[in-house]
């Protein structure tokens, strides 16, 4: 994720330096060894770059860990757990670097009072960006412990060995101290100076081992708490009056029938109108009794006309990548291909709807929120209720799925405003309809490609114009001499007047659209040359890591070359996301009468650098492949005149058990390169592999996502 | 208000003076504090609110509390006995059959209902039995594996 993309996330400047509350917090923590790492200390350009734009290098620290007097190690991180697995992989990294048993590591996540500032959990940044800071803190902690041990044991440091939470004299193991003993009675604060000396990757014994989820037990017993599960004495549940359409204006409202229900409280605060009750279902009932009339907009824009509407808006953009000379490319090309690819709005549809419980008391507020960016939420809430940010504490319990959708914190702001208004804790849990209505959808987008090949099957021309999906994943990575990629606009939020509702980051934002278009176009050219699509890609690739993942996928799949349509239903695609190289090959069956697709087998090869938790990485690939079938085949937000017509899972179809293929993951051994993202890369390929498999099976080419039965049948008709 | 509503909840008798038309889901979550039963869609489409009523998996968002009168309700909190996980819970752990965990209680209890009816299901029968339960993270293959593991472990013994 680059800086532009971060900026597109629309974060407020972060005013997060609260030295007073930090000092209080440290006092409360008692004795031990405390290690702080600031991003300024490390070359973590991406997050640090964003911070500088937000107003100067922060004096705050970014990674923080404590070794307690009981020997337990606690990692404090502003990252959150929404299923992607850092609750397991971060302690794994810490245990490795600090030489402690994994079960002595605790992790505190997403609590703005206790954790160092963090921009948010998205962009597959946790391992590749926060990870190095955590490793540095652990290395520094080890250094401190070594110094203490040398003093306590009267042994020169070079003879000391750290292992399993102990430091001992390498010549006599009985001369030793536990980390707890070394930390006892101490209050040492260390800020990392200079470059930490990290453990040699070759000596890793914890990182790289497949580990089960550390949150598993709480999640299978119902103990795991999500924001909507938090209870406070005297709390009320709120339901808010919502407009029927985006752009609708409230004309008049009659709340008397709601007020007639015992215990119902009505709050009107500016644009906010809510009914509250001590039972959530009674609040819902009361809301249904509120009579409201709205002026409705008639925009004439719906899910069919949207592409014309978006083209008319004609957003400005910028060149993302350029090389050679397009005119020269046109001259060299013996065949050219002009295509337009479309994709619809897609919802995040996490199983947990946006939820928050807020307790505003005097000049202090505590909010438990389902959020991907607790520190962003803290600022939004502080502004909304007129408190300084340091008086607002956001706590993030487990998040029931995010996928980019929980970076807006509207529900937390609503809960805080209502709690302030009624002087009691207030919980807001969005209904599924509210979730669909206020989601920041993956934008509908258009990609236009003009490409050409020479007589030898080399791609010599690539002119790529992406509208509304943004630049992530837009730049092609083939060895094409004459190419240009333009992204209009560069992020995923369109200019005013473009999208009829909010759009935002959706798991690997932009890249799903871009990879669908690029890899479909590559396949079309392979077909035109009469070449096998894997062979055609290999012929046009020079990126060694891409070649390696493609070959690895082909080998595992048992690929045998053939010219599409081979009737086998094989589809292949390559992509890059979050620093990771990924290639996928699938086998799919197409019902030519019904227009339905059954993906039977998925093989995904991924080079993500050093893999911290291979089991976690595999889980993410499986999640990507499964979730990705949704945007490829069924998921599409229906709307008209500002109304979102999908309000639940009856019309908005998520992937189900019967869809799920056999999924095989090949993780390339790349220990010597830094860890990259794993939560998103594989999902970018799902549109293209399925489109290419449909072509290979039927000879029908699909140019629009999702590839619904209707569109597939229409394409088959044209064959 | 009508007569109190009595039923067994996680092995303990309860007697509630509440409106019997209320959805079981909200009674469990708000009145009883059993928040392991989740709200996902409110219309019976997703299955995250699934509980057992006399051993049958039902959607608590569509189930009125008066309909459980005299019956046995088990929520995810009641599946663990004396600190020992139920074989289905163990199998979900062993197979890492979850990510965000929000659908997990409903998945486990739906699987419980499925295995009660059919102790040795085929893979296809598991898929059919779980089809109406939604998971957004994409843990499906592992959930199927977990149910197979649990079925083998339980061998028809509940």
Name the largest protein-protein interface in this structure.
A-B, 58 and 58 residues
Total strands of chain A: the figure is: 29
Radius of gyration of chain B: 15 Å
Total beta strands of chain B: 5
Separation, N- and C-terminal Cα atoms of chain B: 39 Å
Portion in helices of chain A: 25-40%
Structural class by secondary-structure content of chain B: alpha+beta
Arithmetic mean of pLDDT of chain A: 91
Which word captures the global form of chain B? globular
Runs of chain B in which pLDDT lies below 50 for 5 or more consecutive residues are none
Percent of sequence in beta strands of chain B: 5-15%
Query: What proportion of the residues of chain B is helical, as a percent range?
Result: 25-40%
Strand content of chain A: 15-25%
Query: Which structural class best describes the helix and strand composition of chain A?
Result: alpha+beta
Gap from first CA to last CA of chain A? 40 Å
Q: What general form of chain A does the structure show?
A: flat
Task: List the strand order in the largest sheet of chain B.
Answer: 2-1-5-3-4
In terms of topology, how is this protein built?
The complex is a heterodimer of chains A (719) and B (158).
Chain A: H1 3-8, H2 19-29, E1 32-37, H3 45-53, E2 63-67, E3 73-77, H4 86-98, E4 105-109, H5 126-153, E5 160-163, E6 166-169, E7 172-178, H6 179-183, E8 187-191, H7 216-221, E9 236-240, E10 249-254, H8 256-259, E11 265-269, E12 272-277, H9 280-289, E13 291-295, H10 306-313, E14 318-323, H11 326-332, E15 335-343, E16 355-361, E17 364-369, H12 374-385, E18 392-395, H13 410-422, E19 426-429, H14 432-438, E20 445-453, E21 459-467, E22 483-488, H15 511-529, H16 533-540, H17 544-557, E23 570-577, E24 580-591, E25 596-607, H18 614-633, E26 639-640, E27 643-644, E28 662-667, H19 686-698, E29 704-705, H20 709-718
Parallel strand pairs in A: 1-8, 3-4, 9-19, 15-29, 17-18, 21-22, 25-28
Antiparallel strand pairs in A: 1-2, 2-3, 5-6, 6-7, 9-12, 10-13, 11-12, 14-22, 15-20, 16-17, 16-19, 20-21, 23-24, 24-25, 26-27
Helix pairs in contact in A: 4-5, 12-13, 15-19, 18-19
Chain B: E1 5-9, E2 12-16, H1 24-31, E3 50-53, E4 56-59, E5 72-74, H2 87-94, H3 104-117, H4 123-130, H5 140-154
Parallel strand pairs in B: 1-5
Antiparallel strand pairs in B: 1-2, 3-4, 3-5
Helix pairs in contact in B: 2-5
């Amino acid at each position: 994720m680059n800086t532009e993309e971060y900026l597109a996330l629309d974060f407020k400047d972060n005013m997060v330096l609260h030295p007073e509350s930090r000092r209080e917090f440290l006092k409360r923590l008692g004795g031990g060894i405390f290690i702080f790492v600031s991003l300024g200390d490390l070359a973590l350009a991406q997050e640090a770059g964003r911070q500088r734009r937000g107003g100067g290098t922060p004096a705050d620290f970014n990674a923080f860990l404590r070794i307690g007097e009981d020997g337990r190690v606690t990692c404090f991180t502003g990252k959150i757990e929404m299923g992607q697995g850092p609750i397991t992989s971060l302690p794994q990294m810490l245990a490795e670097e600090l030489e402690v048993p994994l079960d002595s590591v605790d992790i505190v996540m997403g609590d703005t009072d206790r954790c160092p500032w963090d921009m948010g959990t998205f962009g597959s940044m946790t391992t590749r960006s926060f990870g190095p800071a955590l490793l540095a803190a652990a290395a520094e902690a080890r250094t401190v412990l070594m110094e203490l041990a040398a003093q306590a044991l009267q042994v020169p440091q070079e003879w000391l060995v750290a292992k399993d939470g102990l430091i001992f004299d390498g010549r006599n193991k009985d001369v030793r101290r536990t980390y707890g003993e070394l930390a006892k009675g101490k209050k040492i604060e260390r800020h990392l100076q200079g470059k930490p000396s990290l453990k040699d990757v070759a000596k890793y014994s914890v990182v790289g081992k497949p580990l089960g989820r550390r949150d598993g037990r709480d999640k299978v017993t119902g103990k795991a708490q999500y924001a909507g599960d938090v209870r406070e004495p005297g709390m009320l549940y709120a339901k808010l009056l919502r407009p029927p359409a985006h752009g609708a204006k409230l004309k008049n409202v009659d709340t008397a029938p709601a007020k007639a229900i015992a215990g119902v409280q009505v709050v009107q605060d500016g644009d906010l109108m809510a009914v509250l009750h001590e039972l959530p279902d009674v609040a819902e009932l009361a809301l249904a009794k509120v009579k409201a009339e709205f002026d409705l907009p008639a925009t004439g824009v719906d899910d069919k006309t949207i592409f014309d509407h978006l083209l008319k808006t004609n957003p400005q953009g910028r060149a993302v990548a350029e090389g050679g000379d397009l005119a020269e490319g046109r001259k060299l090309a013996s065949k050219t291909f002009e295509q337009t690819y479309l994709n619809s709005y897609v919802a995040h549809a996490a199983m947990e709807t946006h939820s928050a419980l807020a307790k505003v008391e005097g000049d202090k507020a505590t909010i438990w929120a389902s959020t991907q960016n607790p520190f962003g939420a803290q600022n939004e809430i502080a502004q909304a209720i007129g408190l300084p940010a340091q008086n607002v504490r956001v706590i993030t319990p487990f998040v029931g799925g995010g996928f980019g959708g929980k970076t807006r914190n509207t529900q937390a702001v609503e809960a805080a405003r209502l709690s302030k208004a009624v002087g009691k804790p207030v919980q807001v849990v969005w209904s599924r309809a509210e979730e669909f209505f206020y989601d920041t959808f993956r934008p509908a987008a258009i990609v236009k490609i003009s490409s050409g090949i020479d007589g030898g099957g080399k791609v010599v021309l690539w002119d790529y114009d992406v509208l509304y999906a943004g630049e992530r994943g837009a730049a092609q990575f083939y060895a094409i001499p004459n190419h240009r990629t333009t992204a209009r606009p560069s992020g995923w939020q369109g200019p005013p007047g473009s999208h009829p509702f909010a759009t935002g980051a959706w798991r690997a934002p932009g890249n799903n659209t871009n990879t669908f278009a690029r890899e479909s176009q590559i396949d079309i050219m392979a077909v035109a040359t009469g070449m096998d699509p894997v062979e055609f890609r290999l012929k046009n690739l020079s990126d060694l890591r891409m070649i390696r993942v493609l070959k690895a996928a082909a080998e595992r799949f048992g690929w045998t070359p053939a010219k599409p349509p081979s009737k086998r239903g094989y589809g292949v695609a390559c992509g890059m996301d979050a620093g990771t190289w990924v290639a996928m090959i699938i086998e799919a069956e197409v019902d030519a009468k019904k227009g339905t697709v059954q993906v039977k087998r998925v093989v995904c090869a991924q080079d993500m650098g050093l893999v911290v938790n291979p089991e976690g990485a595999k889980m993410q690939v499986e999640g990507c492949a499964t979730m990705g079938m949704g945007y490829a085949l069924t998921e599409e937000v229906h709307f008209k005149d500002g109304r979102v017509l999908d309000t639940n899972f009856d019309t908005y179809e998520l992937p189900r058990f019967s869809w799920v293929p056999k999924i095989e993951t090949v993780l390339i051994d790349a220990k010597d390169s830094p860890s990259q993202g794993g939560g998103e890369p594989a999902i970018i390929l799902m549109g293209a592999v399925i489109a290419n498999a449909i072509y290979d099976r039927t000879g029908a080419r699909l140019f629009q996502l999702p590839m619904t039965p209707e569109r597939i049948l229409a394409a088959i008709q044209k064959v | 208000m009508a007569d109190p509503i009595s039923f067994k909840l996680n092995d303990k008798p309860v007697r509630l003076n509440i409106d019997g038309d209320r959805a079981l889901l909200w009674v469990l979550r708000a009145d009883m504090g059993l928040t392991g039963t989740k709200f996902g869609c409110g219309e019976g489409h997703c299955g995250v609110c699934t509980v057992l009523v006399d051993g049958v998996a039902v959607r608590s968002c569509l189930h009125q509390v008066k309909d459980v009168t005299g019956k046995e309700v088990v929520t995810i909190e009641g599946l663990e006995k004396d600190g020992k996980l139920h074989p289905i819970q163990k199998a979900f752990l062993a197979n890492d059959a979850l990510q965000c965990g929000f659908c997990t209680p409903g998945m486990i209890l739906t699987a419980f209902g499925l295995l009660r009816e059919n102790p040795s299901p085929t893979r296809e029968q598991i898929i059919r039995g779980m089809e109406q339960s939604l998971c957004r993270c994409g843990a499906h293959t592992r959930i199927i594996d977990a149910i197979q593991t649990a079925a083998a472990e339980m061998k028809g013994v509940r």
